[in-house]
Amino acid sequence: MESSAALASQLRLAVLRLSRRLRQQAVGEITPSQLSALASVAKHGELSLGTLAALERIAPPSMTRIAARLEERGLVVRRSDDTDRRVARVAISESGLAVLDEIRNRRNAYLAVRIRELSEAEQELLARAVPLLERLAEEDAEVQVGSVTL
Predict the structure, then answer these.
(1) Tally of CA atoms within 13 A in the half-sphere of 92 that contains its CB
(2) Residue 145 has what DSSP assignment?
(3) How confident is the model at residue 150 (pLDDT cuts 50, 70, 90)?
(4) Any idea of the CA torsion for 6, 11, 12, 13, to the nearest 10 degrees?
């Protein structure tokens, strides 16, 4: 059995390559950061920009710029909070939902074509690996790497 470090390196490279291929299936001029923010708003509903920044793990000024671009394109609607006018909130628009659906459909179609190229045994192996990949992708409190806690 190969070392966990070697497996980690191979897995990281494979995931990065697959992620790059999937990003290429996006439509329009939407950046990965904008797409991620849009998907978070779709998933969680109307959010303050501060909450969205925290969910996306980026600085609030960066989220303000991302939200402004999404609003310019009509993908989100921004409004002031009812209780505190200083707080901006964003909600996904119908256009935003349509863009997300189109990108998801294109990415799913791309993967479906690639998966059909695999043998039946490879498809079964991939199906068994998905829950493991999901576990690896789950957030955990802290991971200790050498003397550094990530």
Answers:
(1) 21
(2) E
(3) low
(4) 90
